[in-house]
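::Amino acid chain::
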Amino acid sequence: MKKKYFLTLLLSLFLLPGVAFSQFRPSPEGLKLERTLQMINGLYVDDVDTKELTETAIRAMLRELDPHSTYLTEEEVKAMNEPLQGNFEGIGISFNMVTDTLYVMEVIGGGPSQKVGIMPGDKFIYVNDTLIAGVKMNNQDVIRRLRGPKGTSVEVKVLRRGVPELITFRIVRDQIPITSIDATYMVTDEIGYIRLSRFGISSGEEFREAERALKKQGMKHLIFDLTDNGGGILQTANEVASEFLEDGKLIVYTEGKNQPRYTMHASGKGQLTEGRVVVLVNSNSASASEILAGALQDWDRAVVVGRRTFGKGLVQRQLPLPDGTMIRLTVARYYTPTGRSIQKPYKPGDPDGYQQDFMNRYEHGELFDADSIHFPDSLKYTTLVNKRTVYGGGGIMPDCFVPMDTTGTMLHGRLNANGVINKVAISEVDKNRKELLQSYPDARSFAQGYQVSDELAGRIHEQAVTDSVEWDEAQYEQSRSLILLQLKALIARDLYDSSAFFRIVNQENEIFREGLRIISDEQRYQGFLKGASSNSVQQ
């Protein structure tokens, strides 16, 4: 029975849904793999883990194809799907692990934890009589203990500032929404800002809700932030793009050797077809982000600002295997409305080289100077309305290039890696939450009025010493303004929400600032859309 099971598992590689029936017959290569597995299982000198061997063979085959064809275990399938599904079952908090203790950052409104009285700043010491504080438990271990099926319960013992004894709460798990809008706020009286972190099942409706809320506040123009957005569901990208484009306009098409051309068009009546739009991108904006940015650029609907995007333009089809695992197999390529392929070049069988692309861009100077980027004439394309030049060849090249910030230092990186700045922020809010909220009742007043004191800034050095983080005074002075801005933003996030965090960090985010300058200047904005402004991209 065991051999028969693994024969079925191997042959399922060749029995993919949507493939012609004639291809269901095992190929000589498939029989060869099965025969090899039988001989190892029946003749090898030692016992072997046949499942592990099978998975190794599958991974090796897929690695020879392209960087995005992958094999996923059952746990990996669940982890992949959860952020896109729009919800999970749990207790409804977001938390940080600070010095091996779970610190509650946010309690989701209407969720199970809020209903029983859990508060931001609470520290979880026990979960179902298991000590989780001070035992070096990682985030996934904690999550596994807190999450569970809807209707089941978990008991937690909480340490709350000002309360001498641990407080016990019994929390009944429920469905918890996963949101993909990180921030929504008005930058000026007429300019709104929306930051989208992923394209999940509920992202389209979330975006429309954010859009409606900003319009009620007077929004006429929008800065749409897709920096660090790694993509997600294609249909959702189509939903969001449809808000900016007239009904029927092409958004993206896919095509592959065994996949006929498939097109997606704007549908319905978009609510953002008027007014100025700036889309912010960087080298971590990928897949669905690139589809949306490329469509708006090709239709001259938005000015794209930032740095060239990741270049993930291969379409994967999710193909379940009988044991709950999955293959994500590349079946086609994405193309923007002008016919640009989003996928950057890659060498089959060389995933390491593919992953080095960012370092290659760094070393070639692309992240700091648009003049270092060279496009041959064959990669020139013409937009569909204003007939200006845009470029293919992998990723979306922005209309306005913004070089990478150079104020970051190794010290700043070490402080982040060790959670030093976050620990100082949490400690400050833990001690002074009530007083801070009395002085600054909302995020806007905090952003405008709060200043990091010298005493609080000094605690960063103290915490670094406590955590044995190597200190460099010259690097601290170079990154000081960035570090203190981050500290202020983290305090704001703990006091209010993630919108407050981005309201503050955007003050020194040059991609955002350049986008704001462009959208605020009608003449300059139109200059980009008409091709009068350029990045001095060499050809």
Summary: The two ends are 62 Å apart (CA to CA). Residues 181-316+332-404 form a domain with the 2-enoyl-CoA Hydratase; Chain A, domain 1 fold (CATH 3.90.226.10). The CA atoms of residues 102 and 331 lie 43 Å apart. The chain has four domains: 2-63, 87-177, 181-316+332-404, 410-508.
